[in-house]
Write a structure and sequence with these properties.
By secondary structure, this protein is mostly beta strands. The protein is about 10% helix and about 40% strand. Strands 1, 2, 3, 4, 5, 6 and 7 form a 7-stranded mixed β-sheet that branches. The two termini are about 20 Å apart.
């Protein structure tokens, strides 16, 4: 699972994965982060979804484009 924050981007342009926890998750992908691979995203205690990685050359960070229909609300414990 890769940490994301829904306030850092949107479903259309992708969520920017620039947080330390996001970078840590990306570093654990076997073979490294690559354009077009599917990943599991989580905003702990709130939402999760599947996304497709896309590198944003202007920002120098990865974005995750939400795969439509995969967003789930994480119920409170």
């Amino acid at each position: 699972m890769i940490f994301f924050d829904s306030n850092a981007g949107d479903a259309e342009s992708g969520y920017i994965l620039w947080f330390p926890k996001s970078l840590e998750g990306l570093s654990k992908i076997p073979g490294g982060a690559r354009e077009g691979i599917e990943v599991d995203l989580i905003m702990p205690g709130e939402i999760s979804c599947r996304g497709i990685l896309k590198f944003d050359h202007d920002l120098g960070y990865w974005r995750a484009l939400e795969i439509e229909g995969t967003m789930k609300i994480i119920p409170p414990e």
